[in-house]
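Support case: user asked for a sample of complex input and structure output to validate their parser. Sending the pair below.
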Amino acid sequence: MARQSHRKQTPDFHDKYGNAVSANGATFCVAGWAYTATQIGLEWNLSPVGRAAPKGWRDQ
Amino acid sequence: MEPLSHECGSSKAYTFATHPSAASTHLPLERSDKTQGVSSPVCLKEGLTSSSVLRANLQDTLDGIQETRVAFWLPLSRTMSFRAAWSLVLRKGGLGMRGIHSPGGTAHGKEKMPPYTNYHAQRSYPMPDEPFCTELNAEQQALKEKEKGSWTQLSHAEKVALYRLQFHETFTEMNRRSNEWKTVMGCVFFFFGFTGLLIWWQRVYVFPKKPITLMDEWKAQQLQRILDMKGNPVQGLASRWDYERKEWKK
């Protein structure tokens, strides 16, 4: 039989708030980066394959 | 007990430590000396290094002097001041200070004031030098006296009580898992998200104007030029373009 704890352990900070902290942190991270990556005009220079339509250039 | 000789004759407290920040409180050096403000010339007379200024209460004074002499290879005695202990740790150098606040931290623990001790146990250092409880009430002292006799006389409850005096937690309790990783990951995510805000600020206040070559119109014309030249026609860009239908290959 596995060893057992001999005292009742009161919940510590991580037991009480660990789930909330990690969920809120992850949400903040995802939301923040989704906004940063798409809305503020950063140039990612992704590949044109499948995305961009070529445009005539010879007359310039 | 040898008489004290004050260097300057006043009863103000002096500390003779070379460590400037090791100024400690007053040290009663004789058991009969109840006054405050006694300097520590006895330390110098005993030949101790002046960097280990003692912070001892009355009954621990002699023990403290004795212990400090051999303190260099013992874990830090609680009678050493925090500054002296810290300088000792730095001198020894080998002790890792990482994780001192975590359950997997180093064995010597933190230097604390009474009534806390230097007790820190972990799986790799299961029996610290000092017992967990050092200040015992009368009942506990009676139990310690009984412990000196035959252990078959002890009841189960008494054995458990003795264990709890000596050790803070059982192995199971000491090694229990925790949910600390959730807090850690939450903070990691938070700061990572905060970095995104920093980059936003950078974009607004630091980045220069986007060069013309990165504008959509220019990139579209550049793409047409590459397709006209059939750049990388085997596996690269032009190989992905369907020239008959004038669209990207599916």
